[in-house]
Design brief:
InterPro entries: WD40/YVTN_repeat-like_dom_sf (IPR015943), WD40_repeat_dom_sf (IPR036322), WD40_rpt (IPR001680), WD_repeat_creC_regulators (IPR051362). Keywords: Repeat, WD repeat. A 5-stranded antiparallel sheet has the order 1-2-36-35-34. Strands 13-14-15-17-16 form a 5-stranded antiparallel sheet, with no helix packed on it. Strands 18-19-20-21-31 form a 5-stranded mixed sheet, with no helix packed on it. It has 5 helices and 36 strands. With about 575 residues, it is mainly beta. The two termini are about 25 Å apart.
């Protein structure tokens, strides 16, 4: 297996963005940003588009960390990206700055207020006045680093008057910092940064349905976990967390690094945290957790086990011992019934979360598994890892039904495209086609189409001395029997699994990739160095090629964007 190890590129292009006082200036800024993005990509030998059967995807713009940012300890973690959509601002009991209610104020008024707040401080705010973005001013943070995190310093916060309480944002980690970018703004630099002095952020997850305001989870290399309100972070101009709830403080429950965090669907107050020692913990928001948080000693490290907290006031409320090595990724099915995990031991494990029971699982063809995700209907699971394969796992048959071959190195991210529909689909279960994507350390984005009617499925049984026979259609009728509950299967033989070829293979970055997200208008790809690219779909091409049209509709578009990943 070929491992791509490109050196860190510390040279970044910086575009100075001034205050735009009219629509014509905004349009010029959009055109300039798109031209700069295209020029940068072409200079690196990368194409700014790729073709698919349904049309051409075009690189619209990029997001990255500020020029000159040096993530000294970046080598300890790779960037991950989370898409967060904030809905209309809810009514708040606490005091609210009057400027937040004046979202239609002129750019000049916003700039004056921001400049006033920034006088004499290192955390000043400069408004870019981009019409149609999320209503945020661009934060230009000073060079000083925060010395520590604060659990709640709202009374000392300076509020950002340019934030209107809604929008769609990109959250990504680089080194010791979480960056937040405005998805609908063409500006490359983030509008907000959150610095962590003692440990690097590793993973994060967003819950758009959170009812108490705490919708963002952040897991650190130290094992610490924070839940915060994204809206509250954007309102504050500082670089420290505000109003944060702190869990597993200083590794009091588990001192191994966090590897994955996920909100539990259909459960507003609960989330899970996976660790590098093979344990997964279930937390409830709002619980203090100062009561006894110890759990019984694990008797057999090789066996799955669940232990519950001794007190109803404890937090975490349960510990799941999954495997001996690190858990690399976790994902819930959309209904919250099933939980999938993948780990360094190369196994996919699928649990009935409500029953706390291992349902099924299987081994990779080779090496560790790094990522996993569910189809929207809960019928299939995708995994990727060190065998360079994208594996399609069927929940109905509890086994591998296809392997995707096309990557030249480790597969680091997989996702289903829930916004895509096949032109030949007739909306019947007999003719369903799934589109999914994968990214890898080979810097490539691959798109795949999965049609169970077209897959050739080998029979499990073959006559002695003969070759296996093949059949098309639903594979479930051909297996001898469903695997017994809780069985972890060995890796299947290469000849027994149907192979898929990608419909598209495109080199999208110069650095190894770490993740991808599908939205209604675009595909987002992220590399491990913290650079995110937005590729517009063919259906959005006409709109994106007309800057005036984009400016006029970007606010509306932001309400339609959503993430298909379950993290």
């Amino acid at each position: 297996m070929k491992m791509i190890n490109n050196g860190y590129n510390s040279s970044f292009n910086s575009n100075s963005v001034g205050l735009m006082s009219n629509a014509a200036a905004t349009t010029a800024s959009l055109s300039s940003s798109a031209s700069t993005t295209n020029a940068n990509s072409q200079s690196q030998g990368l194409k700014t588009y790729f073709k698919t059967p349904e049309g051409r995807y075009k690189l619209y713009y990029e997001k990255t960390h500020p020029p000159g940012f040096l993530p000294f300890s970046h080598g300890k973690s790779f960037s991950q990206v989370t898409l967060a959509q904030l809905k209309d601002k809810p009514a708040q009991a606490g005091p609210t700055p009057s400027s937040n209610s004046s979202t239609s104020a002129s750019s000049g008024v916003r700039y004056a207020a921001a400049k006033f707040l920034g006088v004499g401080g290192g955390n000043g705010v400069r408004a870019i006045g981009f019409a149609g973005n999320n209503g945020t001013g661009k934060a230009v943070n000073g060079a000083s680093r925060s010395g520590s995190l604060v659990g709640s310093n709202g009374s000392h916060s300076i509020l950002n008057p340019n934030y209107d309480g809604k929008g769609t944002y990109l959250i990504f980690n680089v080194g010791d910092t979480i960056f937040i970018g405005d998805l609908n703004s063409p500006d490359k630099d983030p509008i907000k940064s959150l610095h962590f002095s003692n440990s690097n952020p590793i993973c994060h997850a967003f819950d758009p349905e959170a009812k108490d305001g705490h919708d963002l989870l952040i897991g650190l290399n130290s094992g610490d976990v924070y839940s915060v309100s994204l809206r509250q972070q954007l309102q504050d101009v500082g670089k420290k967390l505000v109003g944060a709830q702190h869990y597993n403080k200083e590794g009091s429950v588990n001192n191994s690094r966090c590897t994955s965090v996920a909100w539990i669907p259909e459960s507003d107050a609960a989330f899970v945290v996976a660790h590098a020692d093979g344990n997964l913990y279930v937390y409830e928001k709002g619980k203090d957790g100062t009561v006894d948080t110890s759990f019984p000693v694990i008797k057999d490290q090789t066996q799955f086990s669940v232990a519950h907290a001794r007190s109803s006031k404890s937090n975490p409320i349960a510990r799941w011992h999954i495997c001996q090595g690190p858990i690399n990724n976790v994902a819930f099915s959309c209904d919250g019934i099933y939980l999938a995990t993948v780990g360094r031991d190369g196994y996919l494990r699928v649990f009935d979360y409500l029953k706390e029971q291992l349902i099924c699982g299987g081994k990779s063809y080779y090496g560790a598994l790094l990522c996993c995700t569910w189809s929207g209907d809960g019928k299939y699971i995708l995994t990727g890892g060190e065998d360079d394969l994208v594996t399609v796992w069927s929940m109905e048959d509890r086994k591998v039904v296809a392997w995707g071959e096309g990557h030249n190195s480790w597969v680091s991210g997989v996702a289903f495209d829930s916004y895509w529909s096949s032109p030949t689909s007739d909306d019947t279960e007999e003719n369903v086609v799934y589109r999914f994507g994968s990214v890898g350390q080979d810097t490539q984005l691959l798109l795949w189409d999965l049609s169970m009617d077209e897959i050739v499925v080998p029979l499990r049984r073959c006559p002695p001395g003969g070759s296996p026979t093949f059949s098309t259609g639903s594979q479930s009728a051909h297996w001898d029997s469903i695997t017994p509950l809780g069985t972890l299967q060995p890796a299947p033989s290469m000849r027994d699994v149907p192979k898929l070829s990608p419909v598209v293979a495109h080199r999208v970055h110069t650095e190894p990739l770490s993740g991808l997200i599908f939205t209604q208008e675009s595909i987002l790809t992220a590399c491990r160095e913290g650079h995110v690219k937005i590729w517009m779909r063919p259906s959005s091409e006409t709109q994106s090629s007309n800057p005036e049209s984009l400016v006029g509709s970007s606010t509306l578009a932001s309400t339609r964007v959503g993430s298909s990943t379950l993290k």
